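Internal ticket #5521
Category: modeling
Description: The requester needs a full-assembly model to guide mutagenesis choices. All entity lines are attached below as received. Residue total reported by intake: 549.
Assigned to: D.W.
Attached entities:
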Amino acid sequence: MTIPGWLDDFLWTYQTLIHDLGINGLLALAMYVVLAVGQLSLGQAAFMGLGAYSGALLSMKLHWPFALVLPASCVAPVLFALAIGVPTLRLSGVYLAIATIGLGEVLRSVYINWDYVGGALGLNGIPERAETWMIFSLLGVALLALFLVGRSRFGRAMEAMREDATAAAAMGINVQRYHLMALVTSAILAGLAGSLGAHEADFISPGEYGFEPAVTILSFALLGGIGNPAAPVAGAWFLTLLPEMMRDLPEIRLALNGVIIVLAVLFLPRGLFGWRMKRRAA
Amino acid sequence: MMLLTTHGLTRRYSGLVAVDGVDLAIPEGGIHAVIGPNGAGKTTLFNLLTGIVPPTEGRIVFDGQEIATLPAHRRAALGIARTFQNIRLFSSMSVLENVLTGMHPRLSSNLLATVFRLPRFRAEERDAVASARAALEMVGLQALADSSADALSYGDQRRLEIARALVAAPRLLLLDEPAAGMNPAETAGLGDLIRRIAADGTTVLLVEHDMHFVMGLSETISVLNFGRLIFTGSPREVRSDPKVVEAYLGARLAAKLHAHAGTTDGQ
């Protein structure tokens, strides 16, 4: 198959943007799975950082093949999710949000003060191994799996505990177990996204995994909505493409994200793409 | 045989004893009621029985098993279902989905079977939908299966809560003020429904404010006052017991109940 010249040019020019669409889509799904069970857990940037750093180290120091690096990049985020998940199970709402952001900041200062991972300068020279097809295959598989899970007893349980955790528990739903499962799934998705991002950018630094990206990831889901798993991905794509269209004004990008969050919360409580997942009533 | 017993069941909040050393005994089968004035501890008692709040002291034995330390979802899986005084439906879901959610403890498909849509998953979902439709038919809401839950009338929302609790075929159904806010016709229909549920073999325990309703329906009545169980007996005994009449019902309501004696079949 030959790729026409103009398409080749286009792909080459926009490769980073196209990769970002896939990676941000995975991060939006990482946000979705915790919001879908009613948990305002904002550790996705921290999970992403752990996936990025552990993946980059496995590639650079141990020279593992990428096929092993990618799944192994989920290990550290999952362990971190279990470590923070158990003690924070009893928290909810804004308390959980503060606790998870705080834990993310702890990790960020660890990276900054640890010379082995490059300190504040970060890691340079990560092999560029993330391919477009890998990123979008993973996004597609994750999206499909979340749709299928959503349309089952698990999806009903998730929506039930999001609406009323007490009533859900009285219906026999193990709310805490689902919270933990959602957090671990979130860690896997964000860890993959982090590792893919590290292996496509060749350079990572602590600042990419702090408070600002945590809020950006939240804005994907707030803008898109959480009625179905495609909505936060659409939100992520919107927010990834928007600054690209306003290239001349990069400095207002974060401010724009903030404005969008405020507008979405005020006027679009269900998000831009807020239709609810249809469940076939057989 | 007793299906549910409590022994010295106590729940203290700071400066308040909501449930105080209650020894309750609910026989298997039939309809039983807990009555008491506002603040007597009826809803706290239900929350203790279903694991929504942990007891400060005391034991709860359900079907021979100690359950006081089990979390709410485990008790539901053992066969204790409930409705709530302030209706707690999943309002974004359809009527049918609400009932399907009640099936959760009876479904066992794992994530793998779910993602790959294995025959086991498909068969189980089909059965779940059939059970949910049967439960909706039991409460008379089959025609509204695909409506949104929050579009239902108040009385229908109460019925939907009962269907959601009933669909998992519980051994004990706890109804927290099921007649609250219902008009006389709805209350009469509710009485019939509760009788049919009990006739199907589910033990029903209800907390009620509407004396008339409880007297005509229940085999045994337990009276709570200030968190203490002050009397347990048949409706006739409760009505005539001077301790209950004097200490709890009050002279005016007692006279009213006597006037209705003999025709107390729930409106």
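Resolution: model delivered.
Comment from assignee: The first strand of chain B starts at residue 2 and ends at 13.
Ticket closed.
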